[in-house]
């Protein structure tokens, strides 16, 4: 019986997982031969990891998940892996993983395909008969993101099965002129022309194409409400950055509800500091990218 079970596992495919909620495939890649690191412990002056060579298949799914936690999305996926015979090697949650440092040591697809909120993510790695797989799950602003990466040795008996879905076209989250299209497609958009220096919370002038486009969108959709969410780079402390990010969102709201004439009751503001970066903070370009204001649709049909 043990031999039969072992042979079954060798022949069984690394099946595509069933997402816990209706999801859109935002990224699908299949590399015939590469190396990929799978974390085996939390970040502590370095990342314990296993580097595996072979065929890499990676997919990212995005889903509407209002009120869901990363664990609620991860748990059914973990159960599926264990039912397929995968051995869980390591799993962790945001700060226990090592927070910011862990996030940027692992290989995660970049926004807008994948979004990792540093205060709300989970990681899991598992192995089976020479193959390794990992999950990165995060929730933010009512959406959930799941990245699965699987590497199987090129001579492995088990194939890797990918989902049948094709990635949806990805709108440009940083194009001011595409604010309306991006909001319609993803429910959020970066107002990229709202530029802030490190530590600054003020916006000079009133002429911002992204705010004009957002105002046009809100006038054309009077039932929609939004939140403006401020972000900072990682310089400075968490508490100060939370306050700065909120004031940045407030600055954008002042313009949107003042010169652009939008009803203040339709616009909330929040600040999340440096807990939701879209780029590494170890370069000036990355820090500039992270200092941003995003708009998120908060109304529901």
List the helices and strands and how they pair.
Layout: H1 2-11, E1 23-39, E2 49-64, H2 70-83, E3 87-93, H3 94-97, H4 99-103, E4 121-128, E5 131-140, E6 143-152, H5 179-186, E7 188-190, H6 209-220, E8 226-230, H7 238-257, E9 267-271, H8 284-290, E10 293-297
Parallel strand pairs: 8-9
Antiparallel strand pairs: 1-2, 2-6, 3-4, 4-5, 5-6, 7-10, 8-10
Can you walk me through this structure?
The protein has 301 residues and is of the alpha+beta class. The chain folds into 2 domains: 2-152, Protein Transport Mog1p, Chain A (3-Layer(aba) Sandwich), CATH 3.40.1000; 176-297, 2-Layer Sandwich (60s Ribosomal Protein L30, Chain: A). The chain has helices at 2-11, 70-83, 94-97, 99-103, 179-186, 209-220, 238-257, 284-290; strands at 23-39, 49-64, 87-93, 121-128, 131-140, 143-152, 188-190, 226-230, 267-271, 293-297. The strands form 2 sheets. The chain has a 6-stranded antiparallel β-sheet. Helix 7 links the parallel strand 8 and strand 9. The longest helix has 20 residues, at 238-257. The protein starts with a helix and ends with a strand.
